[in-house]
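[Solved] Which block belongs to which protein?

Original post:
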Amino acid sequence: MRRSFLNIAAIAALLACPALAQRYAFKQYGPEHGLDNQVPVAIQQDASGFMWVASPNGLYRYDGYRFRKFSVADGLPADFIVGLHESEPGRLWVTAIDGKVAVRSGGRFIVIQDPLVKPVSPLSGVSSDATGRVYLATAQGLVIGTPNRADPNRPAYRFERAP
């Protein structure tokens, strides 16, 4: 009888432990925190720890305290942002619903004007590797962007079609 009681007590203790370990704390953010849109399309954490939230009415950056909204006035290609990706060395790439792409540089976004880059698949069209090369999935095929580190007077990336 005592052995049965110990077995039941041991099973009860084991079942109770995972229940305690599964508790998560959630916090809801809204307009009072600077997040005007409650429909995130994509979320990306950058190398600096900022959380970026893509939404139908802009891009938001969360610094741990509040959200800051970025829009077309900050260089975004459109307000409806659907894709986010960070490449080396910490460059944030955004894709708009129309397939235009921009990269963050010096606090602003610069729309990529290269004719090879139009349009990029909006939902999952940007990737990169450890060397800093960027891969863009376009309607015409894969385009590779190689960083230009040698000449600061030239565009930051050189784009060409994948072989």
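(Second protein starts here: sequence line, then its structure tokens.)
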Amino acid sequence: MDSRTALLVIDVQTDFCAGGALAVPDGDVVVPVINALARHYQTVVITQDWHPADHVSFASQHPGRSPFETIPLVYGTQVLWPDHCVMDSPGAALHRDLHIPHAAVIQRKGLNRLIDHRAEVVALSGHIHVGELLLPRDPHDPLHAQPALASL
């Protein structure tokens, strides 16, 4: 791939794989595929959920509430999650078999205990929003990052 095209690797962490606190069924299956794909990209950006233990999205912070219930917060409806990807915990670590030594950036998100930064990429107002990182986008291809991404 040319240097203007980036591979985004979103939250491939222990807590989202088999045995993790918020495991995705067969989540481990994507790891070798991602490793193989990454070899074809000059620019790779990895995101990592990185929550304080008292994060607002954790059901444990709301007495009487359970994971997967919803509550209203100032920014909208919030799904309550099991505690996951707590800073410096084994569950927050990138998957042990994820090998992308040339990754340009590891963007940690979810650090603000009062806001749930979702992992998905949302194109808004001519930008691509990844966690707390805001990048310009190519107006002709909403998922094609501009050179600003490569220069991070």
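Accepted answer:
You had them paired correctly. Confirming on the second one: The helical segments are 30-38, 147-150.
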